[in-house]
Amino acid sequence: MPEKCFDAAPAPYRGWGSELIRSVGQAWLRVFGWKIRGDWPGIEKAVLVAAPHTSNWDGLHMLAATAHFRIKLRWMGKKSLGEGPFGWLARRAGLVPVDRSGGQDIVAQAAAAIGRADDIILAVAPEGTRSYTADWKTGFYHIAATAGVPILMAVLDYGTKNITLAGPVHPSGDMDADLAQVRAAYAGATGKKPENWEPVD
């Protein structure tokens, strides 16, 4: 596969460990025939919308793409995953623990985690499920707006085998207009299981 398939500028060099992970990610992408489009915008903190999300494969391809960009993704999970003797493994893998019990405010918890971090790219699947849904959950938007960080869009298009990075979209307070910009990035994209993806016109 020609090198131009990775013609997307990454974040700055972060050391030999990052380069090793980057090489593994690029090898994965070559094996599965993915091309990377869009340069890393030089942002230290953001909420990353990852879609379409119709298969467990999506997460693996997304991790490989972020390895190319020299970015470590963080993800939200229940607090208990980060506890116990092996909790450090989940945290090392990018876990942002949230307490979902007793009506806790997950948006506030995620926004606080972003505020505490020096740099963090928090990945969120807006569908909230790999099964079909006609509506996106808006938690990702509220997290970004509360934390005062932009939204980036990662588009995994199985139709073209492009993983495209788009944005940023800065929450303006007009949620409908901002969400329209976010969804526009996914126009024409196809999920691995198209029947589980609501097309964006």
In short:
The protein has 201 residues and is of the alpha/beta class. It has six helices and seven strands; from the N terminus they run αββαβαβαβαββα.
Descriptive account of the structure:
- Helix 1 crosses helix 2 and helix 4 crosses helix 5.
- The longest helix has 17 residues.
- The protein is an alpha/beta fold and 201 residues long.
- It is globular and about 45 Å long.
- The chain is built from 6 helices and 7 strands.
- Strands 1-7-6-2-5-3-4 form a 7-stranded mixed beta sheet, sandwiched between helices.
Indicate the topology.
Blueprint: H1 16-32, E1 35-37, E2 45-51, H2 57-68, E3 73-78, H3 87-92, E4 95-98, H4 106-116, E5 120-124, H5 139-147, E6 151-157, E7 162-169, H6 175-184
Parallel strand pairs: 1-7, 2-5, 2-6, 3-4, 3-5
Antiparallel strand pairs: 6-7
List keywords for this structure.
201 residues, alpha/beta, 7 strands, 7-stranded mixed β-sheet, 20% strand, 6 helices
Number of helices: 6
Low-confidence stretches: none
Order of helices and strands: HEEHEHEHEHEEH
For the residues shown, what is the average pLDDT? 87
User: How do the strands line up in the largest sheet?
Assistant: 1-7-6-2-5-3-4
- Per DSSP E runs of 2 or more residues, the count of β-strands stands at 7
Radius of gyration: 16 Å
Shape label: globular
Task: Bin the helical content.
Answer: 25-40%
